[in-house]
Amino acid sequence: GENVEQHPSTLSVQEGDSAVIKCTYSDSASNYFPWYKQELGKRPQLIIDIRSNVGEKKDQRIAVTLNKTAKHFSLHITETQPEDSAVYFCAAGGYNFNKFYFGSGTKLNVKP
Amino acid sequence: DVKVTQSSRYLVKRTGEKVFLECVQDMDHENMFWYRQDPGLGLRLIYFSYDVKMKEKGDIPEGYSVSREKKERFSLILESASTNQTSMYLCASITGVSQPQHFGDGTRLSIL
Predict the structure, then answer these.
(1) Fewer Cβ in 10 A, N or C end of chain B?
(2) Chain A within 8 Å of B45 (Cβ-Cβ)?
(3) Pairing of strands B107-111, A86-93
(4) What share of chain B is helix, strand, coil (3-state, %, to 5)?
(5) Are B75 and B52 contacting, i.e. CB atoms less than 8 angstroms apart?
(6) What is the pLDDT of residue A13?
(7) Can the peptide bond before residue A34 be classed as cis, meaning omega within 30 degrees of 0?
């Protein structure tokens, strides 16, 4: 099956700085890569996603890049704000009963 | 908007008890999932279902079973609860191929 690795496990940045979270996956059949944000005590919420036919996608301060050759995808958050503090999960999959495999999560702390 | 509802936010049970976690979605989704979330391990798939009465094992099915008698309801069953099943349990359903999963609020289960 798929194996998704996510780094770093924790990330601390100053407000206004950029944050980058990286994930790698193992199965070249994976064709859909969502990113979820989970605030403390709340459900994971989709913040951005990318499909395998696209290399980059941007939504305001958030962007995701995908390198299919290297089996690598990244989340970029610019101009970070304290409300960006949360745990972020990457996932890969979508080709087999719509199953996804999740990374272990990155706890982002944005210091005011 | 998709609504995935888990019956309990918090649950405390004793070892050896049979425990039922219920999940209901209101969007006629065919695929539903049960995950377990533990710190540093991300979301691990326990079981999923792709149709009524159809189920497939995920990555960590031991000690669990599931039931899907109606399309909107997917139940996770701990046959004989043990302390190592203390965790956060998340239910999700999916809108379609290469689409994001929608999560419930989670059930924090403590086995004493």
Answers:
(1) N
(2) yes
(3) unpaired
(4) 5, 55, 40
(5) no
(6) 97
(7) no
Nearest-CB residue to A102 (from B40, B43, B98) = B43
Is B42 within 8 Å of A89 when comparing Cβ atoms?
A: yes
Whether residue B94 lies within 8 A of chain A, CB to CB, comes out as yes
A17-32: pLDDT as tens digits: 999 999 999 999 899 9
Distance CA B63, CA B79 (A): 7
| Structural tokens at position B83 | 């302390």
Contact A109, A55 (CB under 8 A): no
Q: Determine the residue of chain B that is closest to A92 in CA distance.
A: B98
Task: Give pLDDT tens digits for A35-91.
Answer: 999 999 899 999 999 998 889 999 999 999 999 999 999 999 999 999 999 999 999
Residue with tokens 């982002």: A108
Judge whether B23 and B103 are in contact, CB under 8 Å. no
